[in-house]
Amino acid sequence: MTGWHDGVFMRRFAPRTRALLIGRGQELEATARTAHAAGLDLHVGSPSSESLAVLASLPIPTIALTSPEQNWSLPIDRWTATVLLFHDHDWEFRVLQKALAADGFYIGALGSPKTHRQRREKLLAHGVTEADLNRIKGPVGLISPARDPGTLAISILAEIAQERALLPGL
Description:
Helices cover about 35% and strands about 20% of the residues. It is of the alpha/beta class.
């Protein structure tokens, strides 16, 4: 904690929030632009060359995904929020497994409550614990009925900011 401790002024520095966005389409693009404007340490992965082209003007690391089984390292640490923004949920499984194995403070996934139930069932069938399943926010964002990409982006980033503020030791 920042302040005086035993006659010494201590200042705590916490890293910027890292946002790892994986997906495609307008939801990914709007969330990436909003996260960049908010100053997050942003990383984007997408199988969509169109989405990557839209985001090419942002000075952020991107990776072109070639298959749902692609083995790529995710830059996840305690300060990382991982958000999956896919409508085709075949891409989610491996990414969710990796995100759940790491210690990021937030995991969110796009989809309806029905989709989220199906996502949970699939992960549970593959040995993911109930405690880990409960780490996944779905539907993603504070405004669950958000439909347009801009509102969804704000909703997601608000939920990430809320979760980050609740981290112990900040």
